[in-house]
Amino acid sequence: MKLLDFNRILGILILTLFYVACSSDLDFNQANDLKLEPIFSSNLAYFDVPANQFVPNGVEQPIIADTPTIDIFNDAFFKDNLAKAEFFFEINNTIDRAFTIDLVYLDRNNQVLYSTNFAIPAYTGVENLVKKDDKFENTKLDLLKRTTKIAFILKMLPGPILSETSPGSLKLRSSVNAYLVIE
Question: pTM for the complete prediction?
Answer without folding.
Answer: 0.77
